[in-house]
Amino acid sequence: RHNARMVFDPTYPVVDANAFRDENWDNYYGDAKEPIPPDAPPALGKDVDIRMFVDSDHAGERRTRRSRTGFIIYINMAPVTWFSKRQATVETSVFGAEFVAMKQGMEALRGLRYKLRMMGVKISGPSMVYGDNMSVIYNTSRPESTLKKKSNSVCYHAVRESVAMNEMVTAHVPSIKNPSDLCTKVMTGGQKRDGLVGMVLYDICDDHSSAG
User: Fold this and answer.
1) Helix (H, G, I), strand (E, B), or coil: what is residue 210?
2) I want to staple 120 with a disulfide (CB 3.0 to 4.6 A). Which of 41, 164, 199, 208 is the partner?
3) What is the 3-state secondary structure (H, E, C) of 94-163?
């Protein structure tokens, strides 16, 4: 579509709390807590929700077969960060590429949460992270899950520890509802692309047509 622009939408998203599992991680990561800046000013005003949609394109780069990470971060309904970059290492599986992408997104969320707190913005709770790879979501939402590939262990434990300290929670979302696909894949025009673009851009074409 054309004639679209980014806008700040302060309204709160409709979140299905049942999509996120409430688990006890104490037996796996002890009493891990999210580090709160001790010199952060008192939070004022309304709190904000933070969401992230994350995806990867496995081995999409033909010359080196490196994967691509893509994610979009929202504050309430407004997209504030979008990222699309080739991964630094070659991942031999979709699972590995998705976990690398999840870890990169987690690090971006951690930095954003720190900045918001240092500006006195109240955060409503853990960041809500959506991905379309069921295996990654299973491994990041269930404490009892185990990792069979040692090569993915750093990303695996970094993300799981973030969940354990209630810094973020993860849930599955169908690919057709994952706007971060726009950051990892070339999409031709069609219903899926228009739907995903509509989750990020505000279309102003209708306003002009109705005025005429």
Assistant:
1) helix
2) 41
3) HHHHHHHHHHHHHHHHHHHHHHHHHCCEEECCCEEEEECCHHHHHHHHCCCCCCCCHHHHHHHHHHHHHH
Calpha distance 195→76 (Å, rounded): 19
In 3D, which of 59, 144, 141 has the Cα closest to residue 100?
59
| Stretch 99-122: mean pLDDT | 97
How far apart CA 164 and CA 168 sit, in angstroms, is 8
pLDDT at 8: 64
pLDDT of residue 189: 81
Tens of pLDDT, residue by residue over 120-148, are 999 999 999 999 999 999 999 999 999 87
Which tokens belong to 14?
A: 């409709």
| Structure tokens, 100 | 């690398």
Calpha distance 99→155 (Å, rounded): 6
